């Protein structure tokens, strides 16, 4: 085998709570992460020598060592002293720097692809441990599905699948720095925190309305202060029938949950937001 094709699926947060800042500089989080159908496509191919080459249809991602997919390939090449290089073609569909873990999803896909190409025999748990060295969201992107994430985000507990639902995502024409958002968060002044356990119970019951009522992300306070239009986007989605709406991660992408695809499509078609990307996806 000289080539492997992979899918790299985005994630959203159903909840996101920040408990405290740790001595190592990271923040202790508790959040429910959900894989969605929006995805990048990757093709990983063997190269002679030990080069790593990134090729993409997007100019918004780096093509060298700053790319998380490059770092994933290098991590396994160094760890196992691999005797060949790889070309990684990334066909981007997930918006960049949007709070949807696009870069982490690509890195997770590369770990899986390298494992297959070089017949490394690594388990999912092994790949998640390597992913932890790359970024807090990478282990979840390796695992997928629905999970409670604690620690930096790498301590994962698998949850039952959420009931099927459609999503409308709005990605404004700008990006947000995750580091800046966390640095500006005043943990002791957070006004509203999620009831994570209540949302988990709704997931276990297959209660989409209960899940939607429980959507909460403490980072909204920070990102909305700088970009107040994001709160209006949430209200627009709810006014068009979304059961609930939330910013994912540190933003700026905002999503709404709809029970039926036709309702999501109708809502998306009715939105007029120049410069924004409006995407339809699904979960469950």
TrEMBL record:
Native source organism of the sequence: Fervidicola ferrireducens
NCBIfam families membership: ispE
Pathway field: Isoprenoid biosynthesis; isopentenyl diphosphate biosynthesis via DXP pathway; isopentenyl diphosphate from 1-deoxy-D-xylulose 5-phosphate: step 3/6
InterPro entries the UniProt entry points to: GHMP_kinase_C_dom, GHMP_kinase_C_sf, GHMP_kinase_N_dom, IspE, Ribosomal_Su5_D2-typ_SF, Ribsml_uS5_D2-typ_fold_subgr
Function field: Catalyzes the phosphorylation of the position 2 hydroxy group of 4-diphosphocytidyl-2C-methyl-D-erythritol.
Catalytic activity line of the entry: 4-CDP-2-C-methyl-D-erythritol + ATP = 4-CDP-2-C-methyl-D-erythritol 2-phosphate + ADP + H(+)
Keywords linked to the UniProt accession: ATP-binding, Isoprene biosynthesis, Kinase, Nucleotide-binding, Transferase
Domain GHMP kinase C-terminal per the UniProt entry, residue ranges: 200-272
Single GO MF descriptor: ATP binding
Residues annotated as catalytic: 11, 137
Entry's family note: Belongs to the GHMP kinase family. IspE subfamily.
Residue stretches making up the GHMP kinase N-terminal domain: 67-145
Pfam families reported for this sequence: GHMP_kinases_C, GHMP_kinases_N
One of the protein's GO biological processes: isopentenyl diphosphate biosynthetic process, methylerythritol 4-phosphate pathway
Keyword hit for Transferase: yes
Binding site for ATP: 95-105
EC number: 2.7.1.148
Name this protein carries in UniProt: 4-diphosphocytidyl-2-C-methyl-D-erythritol kinase
Catalytic EC class: transferase
Transmembrane segments: none
């Amino acid at each position: 085998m000289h080539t492997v094709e992979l899918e790299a699926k985005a994630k959203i947060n159903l909840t996101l709570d920040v408990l405290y800042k740790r001595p190592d500089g990271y923040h202790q989080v508790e959040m429910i992460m959900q894989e969605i159908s929006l995805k990048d496509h990757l093709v990983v191919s063997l190269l002679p020598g030990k080069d790593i080459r990134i090729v993409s249809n997007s100019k918004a991602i780096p093509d060298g060592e700053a790319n998380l997919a490059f770092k994933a390939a290098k991590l396994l090449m160094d760890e196992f002293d691999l005797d060949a290089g790889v070309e990684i073609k990334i066909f981007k569909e997930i918006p960049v720097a949007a709070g949807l873990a696009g870069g982490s999803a690509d890195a997770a896909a590369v770990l899986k692809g390298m494992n297959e190409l070089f017949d490394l025999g690594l388990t999912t748990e092994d790949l998640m441990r390597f992913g932890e060295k790359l970024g807090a969201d990478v282990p979840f992107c390796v695992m997928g599905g629905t999970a409670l994430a604690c620690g930096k985000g790498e301590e994962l507990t698998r949850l039952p699948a959420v009931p099927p639902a459609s999503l409308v995502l709005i990605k404004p024409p700008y990006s947000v720095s995750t580091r800046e958002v966390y640095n500006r968060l005043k943990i002791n002044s957070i006004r509203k925190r999620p009831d994570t356990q209540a949302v988990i119970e709704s997931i276990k019951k297959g209660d989409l309305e209960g899940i939607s009522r429980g959507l909460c992300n403490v980072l909204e306070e920070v990102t909305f202060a700088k970009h107040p239009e994001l709160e209006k986007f949430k209200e627009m989605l709810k006014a068009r029938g979304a059961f609930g709406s939330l910013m994912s991660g540190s933003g700026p992408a905002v999503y709404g949950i709809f029970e039926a695809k036709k309702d999501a499509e109708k809502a998306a078609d009715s939105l007029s937001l120049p410069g924004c990307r409006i995407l339809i996806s699904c979960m469950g």
